[in-house]
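FAQ: What does the model actually see?

It sees only this:
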Amino acid sequence: MADDGSAAWLAPPQAVCHIVERLEKAGHEAWCVGGAVRDALLGYDHLDWDIATSARPEQVRRMFKRTVPVGIEFGTIGVLDPDGVLHEVTTFRRDVRTDGRHAVVEFGVSLDDDLARRDYTINAIAYSPSRGELRDPFDGRQDLQRGIVRAVGDPAARMREDRLRALRGIRFAARFGFDLDPATWTAITDTAPHLGQ
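And it is asked to produce this:
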């Protein structure tokens, strides 16, 4: 895994940096999150840079001329850049309740709360392109270095929240040649009978 200590070498596309800059100039937090950050840290090509922000969906829609309500009930607005490429901008959120696949969420939480609701530590890393700063409260970078897929927090709780996470964990392990953390693997096998949901 590439690392110079500051992570300033991560390079989201200019369009993504522009979206982050506009959100921050309006007084909101804005961070790159998810798979693109993970893949960039592993040295892979990354195409879809998602942004997490303290701005509410209606604020995001007012700030940008071309938007699409991708999943507005979950806080996600698609922002179209000048080339027509859609970038997902999602409000920091926390799960209130879940049926094992879909969650009811609340907004107005912190970045760390938002990262805590994610599936695996390797996907719970945020990057600020304006400051060259990584936020990694669950040691996802260490798991990337060790080649481990580990659930954020309580593995059984993560699987109950969204049964699809079991398949995602297996897919990540296969894609990257990683091992599954033993407690995470136990939770995945325990959730197998519920995958029909």
